[in-house]
Automatic annotation (TrEMBL):
The chain crosses the membrane at residues 32-49. Keywords: ATP synthesis, CF(0), Chloroplast, Hydrogen ion transport, Ion transport, Membrane, Plastid, Thylakoid, Transmembrane, Transmembrane helix, Transport. It is a single-pass membrane protein. Belongs to the ATPase B chain family. One of its GO terms (molecular function) is proton-transporting ATP synthase activity, rotational mechanism. It is found in: Membrane; Plastid, Chloroplast thylakoid membrane. In plastids the F-type ATPase is also known as CF(1)CF(0). F-type ATPases have 2 components, F(1) - the catalytic core - and F(0) - the membrane proton channel. F(1) has five subunits: alpha(3), beta(3), gamma(1), delta(1), epsilon(1). F(0) has four main subunits: a(1), b(1), b'(1) and c(10-14). The alpha and beta chains form an alternating ring which encloses part of the gamma chain. F(1) is attached to F(0) by a central stalk formed by the gamma and epsilon chains, while a peripheral stalk is formed by the delta, b and b' chains. One of its GO terms (cellular component) is chloroplast thylakoid membrane. This is ATP synthase subunit b, chloroplastic. It comes from the Eukaryota. InterPro entries: ATP_synth_b/b'su_bac/chlpt. The keyword Nucleus does not apply. The gene is atpF.
Length: 184
């Protein structure tokens, strides 16, 4: 308790300052100085600080608003780009599908035309074979006929004498004459 009374006693014994000066007692002067400085700052700086804070608040709000507008524009451009990408992907898929179907169609057309060409070649081959067979048959007939004719002529020449030969010629001339009269 003596400490508490000593502190009051020491307040009574403070010497009065004869002149203006700095009090170097930090514990005694610091809360007083701080309260005075804060009071002055609050009183005079309240309007300035309020204006600064309001301006800062407005700048922050404008920045946020601009950022939101930019974000909205970026989202809109992103959606447009995604829509274009989807459209291009769909077109690419259509081209791919159409390309594959076109390739399949061309493949089938090529196969069909190849079969038709092969059929035509087969028909031409068969016709050529038939033609060649017919020609060969005709050649064989001509040879057989020529050989038979030569054999018959040889037989006739050996068997016929002049008189028989002249009678045969006369009979043939008579037949041709009769045919001519019938046709006229």
């Amino acid at each position: 308790m003596k400490n508490v009374t000593d502190s009051f006693v020491s307040l009574v014994h403070w010497p009065f300052a004869g002149s203006f000066g700095f009090n170097t007692d930090i514990l005694a002067t610091n809360p007083i100085n701080l309260s005075v400085v804060l009071g002055v700052l609050i009183f005079f700086g309240k309007g300035v600080l309020s204006d600064l804070l309001d301006n800062r608040k407005l700048r922050i709000l404008n920045t946020i608003r601009n950022s939101e507008e930019l974000q909205g524009g970026a989202i809109e451009r992103l959606e447009k780009a995604r829509a274009r990408l989807r459209k291009v992907e769909m077109e690419a898929d259509q081209f791919r599908v159409n390309g594959y179907s076109e390739i399949e169609r061309e493949k089938l057309n090529l196969i069909n035309s190849t079969y038709k060409t092969l059929e035509q070649l087969e028909n031409y081959k068969n016709e050529t074979i038939q033609f060649e067979q017919q020609r060969a048959i005709n050649q064989v007939r001509q040879r057989v006929f020529q050989q038979a004719l030569q054999g018959a002529l040889g037989t006739l020449n050996s068997c016929l004498n002049k008189e028989l030969h002249l009678r045969t010629i006369s009979a043939n001339i008579g037949m041709f004459g009769a045919l001519k009269e019938i046709t006229d």
